[in-house]
Write a structure and sequence with these properties.
The protein has helices at about 10-20, 40-50, 65-75, 125-130, 135-150, 160-170, 190-200, and strands at about 1-5, 25-30, 55-60, 80, 95-100, 115-120, 155, 175-180, 185, 190. It has about 200 residues and is of the alpha/beta class. It has a single domain, classed as TIM Barrel (Alpha-Beta Barrel), CATH 3.20.20. The longest helix has 16 residues, at about 135-150. The relative contact order is 0.16.
């Protein structure tokens, strides 16, 4: 099972994820979020991501020029975007779909693109730091399974933990996406939890 370790803010965590066999490492560039990286810190994390592991920049409603500059400066291998995908990026995009029901529609993807399926959270949930509801999680798993069967490269994420990794992997997505579920505090990965997640997912 491929795994993307997201919300990485420290070089040591990037190296640890890579040693465990991560397919990708995500760095978040959404201001006013707990795992936001400024350019200086991002360059240090990027330098710790070895060749063969995708370096992914995560954005919300970015401008095309912002993305192109970051792709060049940080040598990003892919971008993950909440919102509309700008054209002409020259790297694969991970299109985020926040699922509220099992009737969600699949996005239109390029041949190199991916879709990240996450259970939706309300604004109140986000402010309180609460996980998605059980209903939203079930809907996301159902959508991920259906879209995977259609041949889409689906990442399943949204509050996954070592305890839920095996069930998420059983849905048979293309990859799993993990962030907060393997942390001691926002942006600081816990080695034991990260290792347990990889073991459970596989």
């Amino acid at each position: 099972m491929r795994i993307k370790a997201c919300g990485v803010t420290r070089p040591r965590d990037a190296r640890m994820a890579a040693r465990l066999g991560a397919w990708a490492v995500g760095m978040i560039f959404v201001p006013n979020t707990p795992r936001f990286l400024d350019r200086k810190r991002a360059l240090r994390v990027r330098a710790a991501i070895p060749k063969g592991v995708l370096a992914v920049g995560v954005y919300r409603a970015p401008k095309r020029e912002e993305l192109l500059e970051a792709i060049r400066a940080l040598k990003l291998n892919a971008v993950q975007i909440y919102g509309e995908i700008p054209t002409g990026l020259r790297v694969p995009a991970i299109v985020v779909v926040e699922v509220r029901s099992a009737r969600a529609r699949a996005p239109r993807l390029g041949s190199l693109d991916y879709v990240l399926v996450e259970p939706a959270r309300t604004d109140a949930d986000r402010r309180a730091g609460r996980s998605p509801s059980t209903r939203a999680r079930a809907a996301a798993a159902k959508i991920a399974a259906a879209w995977s069967r259609r041949g889409l490269r689906v990442l399943l994420g949204g509050g996954l933990t070592p305890e839920s990794a095996a069930a998420a992997a059983a849905v048979k997505p293309w990859a799993l996406d993990v962030s907060s579920g393997v942390e001691r505090r926002p942006g600081v990965k816990d080695a034991a939890l990260l290792r347990a997640f990889f073991d459970a997912a596989r």
